[in-house]
What we know:
- This protein has 380 residues and is mainly β.
- It has helices at 2-18, 247-250, 262-265, 361-364, and strands spanning 24-33, 44-59, 62-79, 99-118, 123-136, 153-165, 168-169, 175-187, 199-218, 221-244, 278-289, 299-313, 326-340, 344-354, 370-375.
- The protein has a 15-stranded antiparallel β-sheet that branches.
- β4 and β5 form a beta hairpin.
Amino acid sequence: MKRSIACTALIALFLGALSAEGLQFDFKGIALDWAIPGVTGLPVPTGADLQFGLPIGALGNSPLTAVARLRGGYEDGRILRDPVTGDVRTEPGAFDGAYRYQSPNFQWALGATLGLAQKEKGNLVEAFAFYRGRYDFYDTSLSALAFTDMEGIFGNSFLAGLAYDNTARDSRRVYSGVFAELSGEYGPDALNEAARESDFLRFTLKAKGYLPLVSTGQASDEKLNAFSLYLAGFASADYASGGHVPIWVMQSFGGRDLRGSLGDCVRGYPSNSFDSSLKLVANGEVRAILPALFHQAWLVSMLYGFFDAGYYSGFANDSGANKDASGAIMSTGAGLNFNVFDFVNLGAFAGLKLPDGSSIYTTYTSTEAFFWNIQFLLHF
């Protein structure tokens, strides 16, 4: 309780400092719930992710910025393990009996970025360091002995790393450039509640790049796209270890911006699946931006083809034969979405799963190769 009060006071003081002139604001995204009773299967916006920054000086020629990030939402989750033993459930059709639960949560981060090299707007290379906290209340009756945070957690950790970013987007929404980030996160038992153990160390490397091929606008207005084509790619490696690795760590790729589980990142597989200690993923897309609809620059459609591949190894908290399981999953397909006010990308995609390299494929998903799903955001 004392730790909760201290963190709340620290956040209040930090946000007070950020109220000064020169405040930078970044809307990082929305939180979605896919399993609200009565509307199961339809994503409902139930929260938001906000970031605030304030320049506070310089170290030598490197600008220093204080940063606060707040995220909250009423989201859903699932676990595809035995909640008591932590074992990967390998019986056929185990996915159909996945444990689902509601997860109201609040997350925060307080820290700073140091610009080591600048570009025209912002930092080209920057170092960052953050204190991170989160409060998760899991509305579930599971006796989660294997993952103690399945019964809720007040968690704390420290995150630090380096990033390079020269990505840009032109008036027709064609991306170019490269982004890369290397980070480490440490959340020892000493910082977390004794009854909800959380003890982990995680390292994450991620990169994405964009290569324009064709980009043309309408003669009447350069912002009205005629036809544009570019390549987009994303790759990440994530490794976590520790005495009590939380389920949210196993089910995500780390860094400043958390990305979903390996199952989320390889399209066609269930969210929160393949929650392994070591996760590798690569995504490639060819994106064709079509003419702006009704001559409105804010309403643009995009057709794309994709290929996703992932690798997993090691299942923390598994006491059985699959503790050291490893394998690969892949998928390929195409999609169509509509960019609306640069806020959402409404659309759908479909494809085929290619599970030949996975020994526990049937644990996490159905054996049917074809899949489709709706889309609210770009994949990366």
